Amino acid sequence: MSAIMSGYFDKLDKKLHEKNKINEYFEKAEKALGVKRVYLAVGLLSIWALYMILGRGAELICNLIGFGYPAYVSLIALETSSKEDDTKWLIYWVTFASLSLVEFFSDIIISFIPFYWLMKCLFLIWCFAPFENNGSKFLYLRIIRPIFLKNRKGIDEALNKAASTAGGLAKEAAGKIIAGKTE
């Protein structure tokens, strides 16, 4: 095994020996199967990656990973008094929404990209990874925020106009409904 791969295996093995719930399962599996937990983890990741490439439901799995875990930890963040975790997850959701918007308009192109769901899933994991400068923060600071700040005035004007128009239409519709009932 190359020195680079050996270094990654060592880092992963160290992480897999930290005390947490998931590693308790790896410890039990390691003892039961007689296989080092680092190899179990690499095997599971390989099976997952292969399934994301070839399996049915890869889109659902990717979206559950990109939505399920972040939604859960966002709820936890809302229940803490810290503003930092709220900001972190708001940045993730803005990034997630931006990706979803781009993805919606490029749906036809996406169907021709091999391994798209695997790449998207890895991208989303990078976006919510538990380190300071994860993907969502990087994309927010480098791309999303500058575009937003440059276009904020126009966006605000368009939203105000849309809200005013919708409010007028709602009043008109309500008026017609009320008038129709009294006749």
TrEMBL record:
Location (main, coarse): membrane
Keywords: Membrane, Receptor, Transmembrane, Transmembrane helix
Entry's family note: Belongs to the DP1 family.
Compartments it resides in: Membrane
Keyword Transmembrane applies: yes
Short name of any one Pfam family annotated for the protein: TB2_DP1_HVA22
InterPro entries: TB2_DP1_HVA22
Keyword Nucleotidyltransferase (UniProt): no
Gene Ontology cellular component terms for the protein in this record: membrane
Protein name as annotated: Receptor expression-enhancing protein
Topological relation to the membrane, as annotated: Multi-pass membrane protein
Transmembrane residue ranges: 38-54, 60-78, 90-117, 123-143
